[in-house]
Amino acid sequence: MVKIIKKLAYYRDIRLLFRVFLTYIKLSLREGKALISFDDKDRKLPITRKTTDVKKIIKYVNFCLYGCKSLGIGTACLKRSMLLCYMLRLYGKDAAVNFGVRKFAGKFIGHCWVKDIDEVNSYDVLFSYPRQDLTAV
């Protein structure tokens, strides 16, 4: 019981947790347009806090996705990457979503992840959003 209370005490930043959950719902409802809308150079994202711990944002996003998965709401690497990248950028951190592929058993498999946050070595990066210069592999 004490372990559960300690875990719940970690997630006491209700505003951040609520923002992560609402952003996930927003991204889920407008999947096609969500990727384009989260980084617009002409419009600045509102930074509510300048010094939010990156690890805390990652844990809150994972907690939200775990809760959604437990409720039967699907979570894929694209949704996770978009949500995590958006939240990191919202709080003033530089983040980008990488899209990559690899060949496995004669088929191409796609995956996406947040650059410099998730360690993914087995995929070749095809595209990074927001666009960043990629060196040829």
Outline:
The chain is α+β, with helices and mostly antiparallel strands and 137 residues long.
Task: Tell me what you see in this structure.
The protein is α+β, with helices and mostly antiparallel strands and 137 residues long. It has a domain at 2-95. It has five helices and three strands. A three-stranded antiparallel β-sheet has the order 2-1-3. A hairpin with a 2-residue loop joins strand 1 and strand 2 (107-114). It is globular.
Helices and strands in order, then pairings?
Layout: H1 2-10, H2 14-29, H3 31-37, H4 54-70, H5 77-90, E1 97-104, E2 107-114, E3 124-129
Antiparallel strand pairs: 1-2, 1-3
Helix pairs in contact: 2-3, 2-4, 2-5, 4-5
Residue runs with pLDDT of under 50 for 5 or more positions: 39-43
- Strand elements, count: 3
Largest sheet: 3 strands, antiparallel
N-end to C-end Cα span: 50 Å
How many helices? The count is 5
Could you state the order of secondary-structure elements as H and E? HHHHHEEE
What is the CA-atom radius of gyration, in angstroms? Answer: 16 Å
Inertia-based shape: globular
Task: Considering the chains and any ligands shown, give keywords for the structure.
16% strand, three-stranded antiparallel β-sheet, alpha+beta, single chain
